[in-house]
Amino acid sequence: MTIGSLKSTKERKSRKSKQPIVDEKSPLLPTKHEDEGGFDEFNGASFSGAVFNLSTTIVGAGIMALPATMKVLGLILGFAVIIFMAFLTEASIDFLLRFSRASKSGSYGSLMGDAFGKYGRMLIQLCVIVNNVGVLIVYMIIIGDVLSGTSSGGIHHAGVLESWFGEQWWNGRFFVLLVTTLAIFAPLASLKRIDSLRYTSALSVALAVVFLVVTVGITLFKLINGTVVMPRLLPVVTDLPSLLNLFTVVPVLVTAYICHYNVHSIDNELEDDTQMKAVVRTSMVLCSSVYIMTSLFGFLLFGDATLDDVLANFSTDLGIPFGSLLNDVVRVSYAAHLMLVFPVVFYPLRLNLDGLLFPSARPLALDNLRFASISIGLLGIVFLGANFIPSIWDAFQFTGATAAVLIGFIFPAAITLRDRYGIATKLDRIVSIFMIVLAVFSNVIAIYSDAYALFKNGPSRSA
């Protein structure tokens, strides 16, 4: 089963009008499965379920690094870049959907295979694997920071469990992440259809809103009391290194909007696939609003003391009534949000790794041994990565500067420029060229700036 092996048998007007098809090379579960001669009906995902799943894919850990980007860019330029990236992301997803309809491709991989052959399909699979492993490691790092604490610049930021019970052997990072993996991630990762995660996705969005509402409330309280310092509106550029440093936020922002690897899975399960563009637009508006609010109020609240992972800032004294309780509410709500986002990102990771390793095998959902083996192996890799990579900024810059920018912009633009079906407009080609030039230029600069800072200042500080 691969990301690139499912193709629609005809252009779809509505999921309701299609007869269920079981293709043994399909990367998706069949909408019906045999069970002692009977069938279990699945009539398609709802609009709201699709929005929740796509929004959950987008609003993951990237939101926690956005206030730190405001520290680099300033509020005005920071907001402009967040909005610009949202429009650019929507355009790239629109390219994928249009060319998927034209080529009758049911996945990102099959679309890349249609445009660039077998090696194109394998390349996108590899990129999704690298990107999603990096993202899931970030999730675990943040959960570990929240529950077990972290150190930055010689200062220890206590975790929630450490604050409640003191330093114990069982609330150390390794043991907490081990229990979280076995008790939460493993059961949720065992679900075989992405629409089965719609309720956990809805809850995860609600938890992200709780985090945002509490953060806004704390900031407004401190604004009224006059204890918030005026934030920097524009970046401070004094020399060439400080100018190049502005580009280090690009990989973080790219990673924050990457959802392309789940677009086809959600589209394929949508009851009426003519709604997919509306699903994407609704998700972009929702997520951009959350990003802007979080960036604004997070940076207002902590200013230049904002850490790479802003959740770590909520271990300090906020100087307000019930500050300790609100700190815990913010951190626990977002850690729970990430726990529920984890399986949504894990789903395409498992499919793509299976497709890369076993391109001719029967569907993964029908092979329990292979399904369990790949799931356990991936969970183990992510768990080990989270215990050895110290900072989410490091992980974001690596995945954002490599796989994420290919998945989100370069591949959709390349498919559009390839234009096998003659449906690309002149504007499409202009936007595609702009995407590629911007992605390559900004990420080369970001990688150079990171390398310069690494050799000059030593390894990145832990968030």
What attributes does this structure have?
disordered N terminus, mainly alpha, two-stranded antiparallel sheet, 463 residues, 15 helices, Amino acid/polyamine transporter I, disordered C terminus, single chain, globular, two-stranded antiparallel ribbon, transmembrane, 67% helix
Overall geometry: globular
Class by SSE composition: mainly alpha
Which regions have little confidence, pLDDT < 50, spanning 5+ residues? 1-40, 459-463
Find the count of extended strands (DSSP E, 2+ residues): 4
Mean pLDDT: 78
N→C terminal distance: 38 Å
Radius of gyration, taken over Cα atoms and rounded to an integer in Å? 22 Å
Concise summary:
The protein is mainly α. The chain contains 15 helices and 4 strands.
Description of the molecule:
- Residues 1-33 are annotated as: Disordered.
- One of its GO terms (cellular component) is organelle membrane.
- This is Sodium-coupled neutral amino acid transporter 5-like.
- With 463 residues, this protein is mainly alpha-helical.
- The chain has a single domain (45-457), classed as Amino acid/polyamine transporter I (Up-down Bundle), CATH 1.20.1740.10.
- It contains 15 helices and 4 strands.
- It has helices at 47-58, 62-73, 75-103, 108-148, 160-165, 173-189, 198-224, 240-245, 249-257, 260-269, 276-302, 323-357, 368-388, 392-418, 426-457; strands at 34-35, 38-39, 149-152, 155-158.
- The strands form 2 sheets. It has a two-stranded antiparallel ribbon.
- A hairpin with a 2-residue loop joins β1 (34-35) and β2.
- α1 (47-58) packs across α7 and α4 packs antiparallel against α12 (323-357).
- The longest helix is centred in the first third of the chain and has 41 residues, at 108-148.
- The chain starts with 33 loop residues before the first strand and ends in a 6-residue tail after the last helix.
